[in-house]
Amino acid sequence: MTFRGGTGSGRTPGDVVVVGGSLAGLLAAAALAGPGRTVTVVERDVVADAPAPRPGVPQGRQPHALLYRSLVAVEELLPGFGDDLRAAGAVPVDTGALAWLGELGWSPDSEQFPVLSASRPLIEHVVRTRVLELPGVRTVDGARVTGLSAADADPGSGADPGSPRWSVALEGREALPADLVVDASGRASRLPVWLDALGVPPAAVEQVDARIGYATRTLRLPVDAVGPAGVVIAQLPDQPGGIALPVEGGRWLVAAAGAGDRRPPREPDAWRAYLGALRDPALAEIVDAGELEGEVVVHRQTANVRHRYDRVPGWPGGLVVVGDALCAFDPVYGQGVAVAALEALALRDAVRRDDLTTARGARRFLRRAVRAGALPWAIATGEDLRLPTSEGRVPRATALAGVWTGELARLGTHGDTVAQAALARVYHLMASPLSVYRPSLVARVLRARLRGYGPPVPRPQIVRGAVRGAADVSPPAARP
Ligand SMILES: Cc1cc2nc3c(=O)[nH]c(=O)nc-3n(C[C@H](O)[C@H](O)[C@H](O)COP(=O)(O)OP(=O)(O)OC[C@H]3O[C@@H](n4cnc5c(N)ncnc54)[C@H](O)[C@@H]3O)c2cc1C
User: Fold this and answer.
1) Backbone angles phi, psi at 9, to 5 degrees
2) What is the CA(182)–ligand 1 centre distance, in A?
3) Beta strand 327-328 pairing with 304-307
4) CB within 8 A of 80, min separation 6: which ones?
5) Atom number of ligand 1 nearest to Cα 328
6) Atom 49 in ligand 1: which residue has the minimum CA distance?
7) Taking a C-beta distance cutoff of 8 angstroms, is the pair 320, 123 a contact?
């Protein structure tokens, strides 16, 4: 089978099949739902009616922080989503009220972005409930897609020759016909194999792997037992970090994150010791204040991976890719859901304006999708390349930008909430990275350099009523 990227007209994508019913697939389905269209979300797992971790989403038991941009974008796709998530138990968190220990010190407590903190299964459950209410959307659960085949368009139909009608093969079930296939099957997507079988040239794969591992435990502890809204100990090139976030049901998720041979351990005592030996014992203090539940859950598939499907010659019409299957990020920066939502918005616009069943329309969407993830990609890979566990060098422009953002971060650790907010706007994908060069910020840096930075932000009290430093800070046991 060959696909010739012609310029003729395709078809109205009446039958859409989305491969993968996780966040990217569900948000894509929301974007594509519309009159005269049937959107079938095919999911390998049998998905429970209540929020629960599932095997197809192995990262589901790790903390998932939602950038403010992700909430704004999902709200645009599913109006009222924030209210639904809050009603389901998500904890409102102001990102400026997180106790954040960066490379240079603690950030000041300030007002920033109102986000919601919830477990990954709850976020998906609320999205799924809303998406399945949309007209024309249905799911086929417990069904694994095993491949794609295509028939060239009927020569007499006037349709683009690069615009096939797809047949989506399912394990042990009848294949599904589709005018448009959306691959949202995550990091483990088999699309490269399926494309190879179709004779489509392989896409270049860009990768930066800092070999980061997560180890997380759930803790029963009232939200207000901790002073700050949550705690982040940023990972540094030579030191591990971690995060503690409140979630629904009076629980906290506490994760350690480290790279290479300093990845956090699975064994409970070693995990607790690892937290105690971080640059600051805040996470260990939280753990000691609560009641631990379940086991330590480890996850190590965290590489930044981007498939350049947008550059593949002879790309077929009626096939697009979203979410981690297109571009997966080191999760430490919390960007995956935001990018999936931005891609879904791009898909909604593309299906209104363009003809995705043609090769040209599909390629144009893929280019937009890659652009939607370009800033997060630059942030995540730029930071990860600083880690000795990554191969490759930080690009010169990124390194220079890092010097400037380091200046602003320094102001933040001395209480400058304006500089801190400017960085947060970019981090939450709410402003252009160029916004950090505005003259008023330059003036603030120069003033501090001439007149001094003032006192550093003090360490916040972590557990209410606890004495600072009460946690055991003994060195960790041997790490795996
Ligand atoms: C440790 C960790 C922590 C993270 N933390 C954050 C965070 O704080 N903030 C954030 O925004 N993002 C975070 N992410 C990223 C986030 O999980 C993903 O970006 C997001 O879930 C979107 O993923 P997805 O839907 O593309 O893929 P996945 O969530 O991986 O889902 C893929 C789906 O496809 C299904 N599937 C796969 N193959 C087939 C097939 N052949 N047939 C049918 N179904 C199939 C799977 O069962 C699964 O349901 C984190 C990721 C990891 C690994």
Assistant:
1) -85, 150
2) 15
3) antiparallel
4) 130
5) 19
6) 22
7) no
User: Considering the domain boundaries, does residue 224 fall inside one?
Assistant: no
Give me the residue label for tokens 């089978």. 1
CATH code, domain with 323: 3.50.50.60
Supply the pLDDT for residue 152: 57
> Is any ligand 1 atom within 6 A of the Cβ of residue 347?
no
Structure-token match 């903190």, residue found:
117
pLDDT value of position 75: 98
Q: Is 264 close to ligand 1, i.e. is its CB under 6 Å away?
A: no
State the Cα–Cα distance between residues 312 and 357, nearest whole angstrom: 16
The answer to whether position 333 is within a domain reads: yes
- The pLDDT assigned to 161 comes to 53
Q: Which residues contact 122 (CB under 8 A, 6 or more apart)?
A: 51, 85, 88, 89, 90, 247, 248
pLDDT value at residue 339: 98
What's the pLDDT at 327? 98
Question: 112: exposed, middle or buried (C-beta count within 10 Å: 0-12, 13-18, 19+)?
Answer: buried
The rounded distance, in Å, linking the Cα atoms of 322 and 361 is 15
Query: Residue 33 domain-assigned?
Result: yes
Q: Are 365 and 346 in contact (CB under 8 A)?
A: yes
Q: How many domains, in total, are found in the chain?
A: 2
86 falls within a domain? no
37: domain range? 15-64+119-208+304-378
Paired with 328 in beta bridges are: 305
For the Cβ of 25 lying below 6 angstroms from any atom of ligand 1, the answer is yes
Helix (H) or strand (E) holding 170: strand 165-170
Q: What does pLDDT average to in each consecutive run of 10 residues of the chain (480 residues)?
A: 43 86 98 95 97 96 97 98 98 98 96 98 98 97 96 52 84 96 98 96 97 98 97 95 98 98 97 98 98 97 98 95 98 97 98 94 97 96 95 92 96 98 97 97 98 97 70 38
What's the confidence (pLDDT) of residue 164?
A: 78
Separation of alpha carbons 158 and 443, rounded Å? 62
* pLDDT in the model for residue 11: 55
Residue with CA closest to ligand 1 atom 9: 334
Do both 55 and 190 map to the same domain?
Answer: yes
Please state the φ and ψ torsions of residue 346, each to the nearest 5 degrees: -65, -35
